[in-house]
Each structure stands twice: as structure tokens, then as C-alpha cells.
Amino acid sequence: MEQHKMRIALLGMGTVGTGVVKLLREHYEIINMKTGLNVEVAKVLVRDASRSRPGLEDLPLTEEVNEILEDPSIQIVVELMGGIEPARSYMVAALRAGKTVVTANKDVVSEFGKDLYDAGDVGDAELYFEASVGGGIPVLRPLKESLSANKMQKVMGIVNGTTNYILTQMSQFGRPYEEALREAQALGYAEPDPTNDVQGFDAGRKLAILASIAFMSRVKPGMVYTEGITRITPRDIEYGKRFGWSVKLLAIGKEVDGQIEARVHPAFIASEHPLAAVAGSLNAIFAVGDPVGETMFYGRGAGAGPTASSVVGDLIAAALSKRTPGRRAGDACTCLFHKQVMDIGQVVSRYYLRLSCADQSGVLARIAEAFGAEDVSIANMVQGSGGPDREDTGEDAELVLVTHSVLEAKLQAVVRRLQSIPEVLAVENVIRVEA
Amino acid sequence: MEQHKMRIALLGMGTVGTGVVKLLREHYEIINMKTGLNVEVAKVLVRDASRSRPGLEDLPLTEEVNEILEDPSIQIVVELMGGIEPARSYMVAALRAGKTVVTANKDVVSEFGKDLYDAGDVGDAELYFEASVGGGIPVLRPLKESLSANKMQKVMGIVNGTTNYILTQMSQFGRPYEEALREAQALGYAEPDPTNDVQGFDAGRKLAILASIAFMSRVKPGMVYTEGITRITPRDIEYGKRFGWSVKLLAIGKEVDGQIEARVHPAFIASEHPLAAVAGSLNAIFAVGDPVGETMFYGRGAGAGPTASSVVGDLIAAALSKRTPGRRAGDACTCLFHKQVMDIGQVVSRYYLRLSCADQSGVLARIAEAFGAEDVSIANMVQGSGGPDREDTGEDAELVLVTHSVLEAKLQAVVRRLQSIPEVLAVENVIRVEA
Questions:
Q1: A318: Cβ–Cβ under 8 A, 6 or more apart, which residues?
Q2: pLDDT value at A393 more than 90
Q3: Of A54, A179, A296, B260, which shows the fewest CB atoms inside 10 Å?
Q4: Beta carbons of B150 and A27 less than 8 Å apart
């Protein structure tokens, strides 16, 4: 096979960067046989070139990004620094200079994806970002290319491994949230400051990318409604099991009548749903389109190896594309429409509500009245002064209600009504139920 | 966006062909917006052009393939006739004439894939066949492209919806095979002559394609060990459930020490395995690679809509590629190695055996001796004169044994020994257990 030399540069040499270099070395021969490519890591941008990097002493390190941006022999820049700046500026500069950019950076892609494509237009350069969503799972290219004939109706993903690990531990062993979080931290699945994961912000950025591609419109992270998992209790999970449900942090995008729903929140799903079986730190993206119907993409959503798999997969595609002049056909922003992202109040869903009530006669009637006043109909109710696994104290009662599909704004009005009933001691939790 | 006219021809106008035309019409605008393509169906080859085709009266039908092959304005040929001939000859002729071929034909691709690529070399033409495996599921392009940096270790799929529907019915409702088959036939999921599906031949062809791509070596259908589902009974399924297993018709490809395993047979898998949740007529392909780890691709494996999704997805990629001269980089046969396909006797697996025995003392010792003589160790045993759901007749006993991992040849030797023990009335079933 014809041999092609390809000089690339890496920006950043953390866990993923190390994984990428390792993969390029270990699979050098296999990549060369498949593609005829000789990939040479010509420069690696690091903050401190003097730091010891065992096994990587021969890498050509630099602390000066211009050594990369101004080197015309470097054709592809792989950005693995993370965070917005300086990653964004470096990528824009590389693209404007005609260099293809491969990135795993969900922060920049979700917020500034259009700007990156625009910079690529200036330099006639390509952009690849499979690793920014779902780690090693091939999902963005399949959505964009294999499923390109479809009108996508829904994407629904478990795209954050930390929260899925925590919820799986809570579900399987009845552990409270705080305990499961500490365990995830001890195992390195959760950061010392877990906010970004447990509040759903990480998942929100990935959903922004998924929804932008699926619905061909710009969805930015700020447009995504986001709610974390910190209020989920083993008690809610137990009630869910009674109804045949599992709880997951879902990133949900839908197109409804030309408008987009984009929301990240914990939700109950039927235990038979393929997403319900996605356990531990695994990820999966479920997508529904016309005419393909249901599809799902499953695998490791994080970690050096899986992420490097996607980065180097992109790198190979990028390098193959460099063989022919111009950009790969179809390498363009999919944001062709300007569809409105709906306010969470406009979303239609089913809801699970858990209430603590004084154990007095007439309470149930007042609660039913609150639902009736907003035209919200109740599909299911479980009453017990104890509830599952709890001793009957004889003092306050617990009530779990599940609604039929209803506008979120109406449900919120019901909640306000419930909170004004003196015998309703607390609306302990409200959790959406996905079909 | 720049507009490109693309004249294509269809070979065959059955269910899938109709689905493709319908999709091209219904999503004309969306495809045009995404790609700038105006796809025009210039010719459709049919056997009988005079037949009435409601809603498709305006299609330019022909009974003469040369009107397509010799028309230089037709750049892409979509083959949807099925079967080997004349589909193979037409595709070879089209490729040699420089026309890109998109096909859903697993028979031709699995048997003559290399010949098609060779014909493409002659005409500098491309070949696309996503729809040949897994219907609407994007799996071949992700394997070939997104996961190209990996060394694949395993592909394991549920790639035949008919048999998965039958086994799901048997598992959920305890139905015997014959009854579930009749139901599948009544619903149109199974053919009047179901041999191709229930004996695993259809899955074998799809595995040949999957394994060829995953392991970069030629695996032809004749090299795939194939065993059907006709001997599975509700009784085996019940025992499996006791062990925490589900039964599936699995298409399994592995690379072990540079050799390939390629086999289709019913197998027990752990109920927690992501493939276990793939129910009814759905398909999924589970793949393991280094460094990506576990991945899975799930969706509708058949039907006009899902198949058309893959065909038109390929068609769009093909048309975009036609914009630039030459072939798309990476469009080549992956059969770069010549790896041996192992004989089934060389395969290592765990096995479930169900025996009928005379209820006499000393039988168990003789059975254990048969295993011991071949160095096959038993991991688990369930004994009962009745077995699950059966009345104790006091006459013959049933014994279920599960082995540790062992060479298939040794297991077969054990079976021969068991069959020569007079008190072993029958080796009722032997089913492989996948880890």
C-alpha cells in the first residue's frame, strides 16, 4: 500500500494524551496496514516540559504553542487540554491555519462548535470530535453519517459515568447518595468536587452536542434544563422498583412540533428499556428516528483507553481525508435550522411525587383536590404510613402518586398547591417518569 | 449550499426498494439541506415492468439491466434484488464501469466481497454495504471507521430477528419451539420455509461479514460453524433461568492467538449481559476491542424502513464522495491478513448438558467417571427425578451438568462416553454457555 507520512501535534499530555500516544505506538503497525499512514507525533504542547514523564522521554515537547501553529509541516492538531481557554483559541488558530483539528473537548464543542466550523471555513480545514460525547462509543459519526437519511425524533442518553455508577450502587445495595458518592470518589470515578457530574452539567454539555446534531439546530449548554441526582434517595428507588422502574440520570433531547426539548435530570424508566440495563460507569445513547426506529449505542464513556480509541479513530479519518485536496464532503456544521428550545414548563411528562402527610382523615381528599384543580390526573397511588422498609411510627404517613402525562407547568402548580396544605408536611421528591 | 444532481439506479423493487424510494421522496428536502444533493432515481430494474405498482407509477422502470450499466449519467447503482445471481454479476459490471454500488445483499457480500472490491479497483468505484448486517443499525461503518484504531478481540451478535423473536416467546411464555415458530410465521417474522433463519445460515452470512471486518481477514460463510435453534426446549430455558442465564442465537467471532473463531449457535448468556436484554425481533452487535473495551450497537435488524435508513445513509455518503475525484480514502477490503478459521473442535467454551438417566444407584458415579476420563471438570450440577415443572414419575431422572471451560473436542468425547453408558437414557441437549 502507498505510504503516507502524517505529522501531527498534540495539545496537552494528561491521561488521554498519554493514552493517545500509547495507542499510536502499540497499534502503529495495524494502523499502517489498514491505511498506509505513518503517523508521527511531531510536537507536544505541555505546560512544563521539564517534568519527568516516564516512558515518554523521547516525545518532542514544547511549551510554546506557536511552534505548532506556525509549523506548516504539521497537518493535524489533536487538542486534549480540556476547558475553554486556551483550548478554544488554539483550535481556532489551528483551523484558520488550515490544520485539521481532532478534539475531545465537550466544553468548547458544545459552546463554540459553530465558531470552530467557521474557523475551518477560513482555513479549508476539518473538525472531528467523536470523543467529546460518550468516550469510546461511536455515536456522533453514526448519527451524522450512517443515520443521515433519518429525521431524528429523540436522543436519550446515559452520558455521565459518575452519576450512573452512583445510582447503580444506590439501586443495587440500597446505599444513600452520600455514601455512594464517597465510594465513587474513593475509586476515582468521581472528582473531589463532584458538582460538574452530580448536578448534570457534564451531561448537559454532551446533550447540547447530541441534540445539535440530531435536530440540526444550535443547542448550547445554557439552553439545556439541568437537574442533578443529589435529591434521589434509596426510598424513591424502592418505590420505583415497585412500579417496575429504574432510576437514571437521563440526557433527553426531543423534537416536538418543530421545537426542541433539551433536559438533563434523574428519571424513572421501565426496567425493560434497553437503557435500564446500562449499569455502573457505562454509557449509552438511545436514539429514535424515522425510518430507522430505535437504535442504541453502548460502551465506555470515559477513561484513557476508550477516549483514545475515538481520538485516534478520528485522527485516522482525518489523515485519510488529507490525502485528497479540500475538505471531506459532509464535514460541516449541522446547525441548518433555528429551532426554539422549549422552556421546561412546556415539557410534557409523567411525574412521581412522594409526600409526607399528617396521618389525619381528609388529607387524601385535599391532595386529590390539588391535582384536580390543575386538571392533572393521577395514574397510580401507593399509600402507607410506613412505606417500604420503614416501621410504622403511627405519626406521619407517606404517599406516592404517579401522574398521567401532563405539562410541567401544571405539575409545578400542583406542587405549589400541595405545599400550601397544612397536613402535607413535605413534598419529599418529584421525579419525572419517561415512557 | 452548492447543489449537486446525482442520478442513481435501483436494481429490484421489492419491499426494501419501495422503502428506499419512499424515503428518498419523503426526506428529499432534509437530505438536500444536509448535503446539497438532488438525488434522482433515473432507472429502476424490475422483472416485470407492466405490473401495477400503486403510488410508484412515475418510476422509470426497465427490464433491461444494460440500460443502467451502459448509461454513463448514472453514477450510483443500488442493488436490492437479493440472492447471488444475477445480483453479483450486475454489481461486478457496475463497479467495473466506474459506478459506485450500494447494496443490502449479505449473500453476495459475504461470499464475494473481495471480488466486488476487485471490480471496484478496475473501475475506481466504491462499495457500500451497511444494510447487509443489522438492518438499520449502524455497525459496519463504525467498526471499520470509528473503531479503526482498535485491535478487535470479539464480535458477538444477535443478528437474526426471526430466531430472537422465537426464543423470546419461548422464554417469556414457556412456549415450545414449534408453537413459537408458527406464531412468528403468522406474524410474518418467519418465512413459510424457515430453514435459512432457524438453522442459523442467515446469521452465519452476517457473521462472515462482521468477522472479516473485525479481524481484517477473509471469513466466508462456509467457514462459519452453524447450529440452529430447533432443539432448544422450554425445559432447557427453565434450567438456564435457574443459573441466571438467557438463551440467544449468537453469532460469535473471536480472535485467539492469531486464529479466528466463527460460529453461530444457541448459547446461554448471563441475564446481566447487555445482549440478554435484546428481546423480540430486535438485533444487537456487541464488540470488544483494545483499547475501546465493550461496545454494543442495537436496533431494528430488518424491515423496509430500517433497511432503507442504512441504504440511503450509504447512498448519501456515496454521493458526497462522488463530488471529489477518485475513491474515498479507506474504501477498500479489510482482508489484509490470512488468519485461519478454527475448527469447532478447537473452540474453548463452557457447556450445559441435560441427561435423562435411569433412577438407579451408581449412575452418578459412572457419569462423573465419563467427565473425569476426559479431564472435563464440572462446575455445577442440578439433579431431580422431576426437574422444574415436572411431576416426579419415580421412573427416570433428569440431570443437568455445567462444565468449566473446556475444549469442544473433549466435550464431544465426554458425550460419546455418556452415550455408551446404559443407564444414561439420552443426552437430551448440549448448549454452550458464553461467559
A1: A76, A100, A102, A126, A128
A2: no
A3: A54
A4: yes
Minimal C-alpha gap between A102 and chain B (Å): 13
- The answer to whether B207 and B251 have CB atoms below 8 angstroms apart is yes
Q: Please report residues of A whose CB lies closer than 8 A to that of B269.
A: none
On whether the CB atoms of residues A229 and A164 are closer than 8 A, the answer is: no
Contact B272 A272 (CB under 8 A): no
pLDDT in tens, A202-224: 999 999 999 999 999 999 999 99
All residues of chain B having their beta carbon less than 8 Å from the beta carbon of residue A303 are: 293
How would DSSP label each residue in B112-169? HHHHHHHHHHHHT--EE-GGGTTTT---HHIIIIITTTSEEEEEEEE--HHHHHHHHH
Q: Choose the closest CB to A291 out of B23, B329, B334.
A: B23
Only one residue has cell 444532481, namely B5
The whole-number average pLDDT for the span A342-346 is 97
Per-residue model confidence as pLDDT tens digits over A269-296: 999 999 999 999 999 999 999 999 999 9
For residue B287, name the pLDDT band (cuts at 50, 70, 90). Answer: very high
Catalytic residue among A99, A154, A206, A248: A206
d(Cα A342, Cα A224) in Å, to the nearest integer? 9
**Average of per-residue pLDDT across A141-159:** 97
Does B138 sit within 8 Å of A316, measured CB to CB?
no
Contact across the interface for B148 and A35, Cβ inside 8 Å: yes
Residues in A closer than 8 angstroms to B128, CB to CB, are: none
The pTM is what? 0.95
> What is the model's pLDDT at position A387?
47
Where do the H-state alpha helices sit in A286-327? 304-321
Closest chain B residue to the Cα of A142, Cα to Cα: B138
At B334, give phi and psi (nearest 5°): -85, 5
**Nearest chain A Cα distance for residue B29, angstroms:** 11
Q: Are the beta carbons of A309 and B291 separated by less than 8 Å? A: yes
CA nearest to A4 within chain B:
B329
* Helices B106-123 and B201-215, packing angle to 10 deg: 40
Residue pair B33/B319 in contact by the 8 Å Cβ criterion: no
pLDDT of residue A331: 79
Residues of chain B with Cβ-Cβ distance to A147 below 8 Å are 138, 309, 313
Domain boundaries, chain A: 4-136+304-321, 140-300, 345-433
| Beta carbons of A149 and B330 less than 8 Å apart | no
Q: Is A22 marked active-site?
A: no
**Distance between A175 CA and the closest CA of chain B, angstroms:** 21
B140-298: CATH architecture: 2-Layer Sandwich (3.30)
Chain B CA closest to residue A317: B145
pLDDT tens sequence across B224-256: 999 999 999 999 999 999 999 999 999 999 999
In this predicted model, what pLDDT tens digit does every residue of B71-114 receive, in sequence order? 999 999 999 999 999 999 999 999 999 999 999 999 999 999 99
At residue B1, the pLDDT reads 66
Out of A145, A308, A324, closest to residue B313 by CB: A145
Superfamily holding B4-136+304-321: NAD(P)-binding Rossmann-like Domain (3.40.50.720)
The partner residue sitting opposite B293, judged by closest CB among A150, A216, A305, is A305
A150: which chain B residues are within 8 Å (Cβ-Cβ)? 27, 309, 313
Look up the CATH superfamily of A140-300.
Dihydrodipicolinate Reductase; domain 2 (3.30.360.10)
- Give the C-alpha separation, A161 to A37, whole Å: 34
CATH superfamily of the B345-433 domain: ACT domain (3.30.70.260)
